[in-house]
Fold this sequence. Notes:
CATH class of the domain at 2-35 and 125-209: Alpha Beta
Number of helices: 8
Number of strands: 17
CATH architecture of the domain at 2-35 and 125-209: 2-Layer Sandwich
Distance between the termini: 32 Å
Helix content: 25-40%
Order of helices and strands: HEEHEEEHEEHEEEHEHHHEEEEEE
Structural class: alpha+beta
Radius of gyration: 20 Å
Strand order of the largest sheet: 8-9-10-7-1-11
Largest sheet: 6 strands, mixed
CATH topology of the domain at 2-35 and 125-209: Gyrase A, domain 2
Amino acid sequence: MEDDRGMSEHVETAGAARLAIAAQERGPAVFSRLAGCYALEARGADAVEFLHGQLANDVKGLPDGGSSRSLLLNHKGQAMAEAQVLRLEPRRLVLVVDDDMGEWVRETLARHIVFDEVELTPVACEVVTIQGANARGAVEAAGLNVPAAGITVEASGGSFVYATSRTGAGGYDVLVIGDPTSERATSVEDALARAGAGKVRPGAIDAARVVTLVATAGREGGEGVLPQEAGLEHLVSFRKGCYLGQEIMARIEARGSVRRALVALELSSEPAGRDVSLDGKVVGRLGTVARLPDGRIGALAVLRKEARDASGLSAGDGVGAKRLEAARMMPA
């Protein structure tokens, strides 16, 4: 009986991953309720100015009802966390933080409040993401407002919809804040299912991210990883002026290159650790690990450039690893 259940779960996982990957080029969009999301409301006369000086992307330039995606860097310029910034009113913003990094972001921001007139308040939230080449059609068919030009946040039934590219083909997130979030998120999911979108678990979205080389700060970033090394530089402004980590970003821009880059790997089995080694020397680290439709294990990793195509790579505690081109991971 245990074997039967295990096989059933594997088939379900493989089917969902195949659906999510196929959605990048054709077929119905997919949706999933994300785990590890955290919403933080910032209010006050200095809320915009304060966040502008803490986050790596532009905040002051957002209009009311505007949205952008940004990183929170440390003083070494390393990509520690990723958040969607929603400017709901002139002095009211909401940060939606991924990958269980919300409390870390709240504590980090709170430490930097000195005389700023800003109040940070966690709010209950759920996030449903819709991804794939046909995501816009699914959102429209579900009766949700599609943001103009991918940046305008519009309220729809107490929810907020904004463009977010979590996979190669892009898509949208629906944020539900305030109680009862779970019931309202379920209503969003029901509407998307009626519109023909396919419901998948978050692991299927991860599989699509591996295939399309889309990193997140919470998985591929962290201590020691610069945004440019994880393919996250599009979440950084190089023109807005002073912010935490800005000096390092300017130095890298002037230098023009970094020593590591994001790659996709195929692993021989589930890894027990995050280090990637070559001939006994650590040359990078793993981020997202996901089961692909054919049963193989794919992963995103940030590796030293000279090691990307090397033979003899190992991950975790000796698991075999080799470079895997994205094209080879797409289902037939």
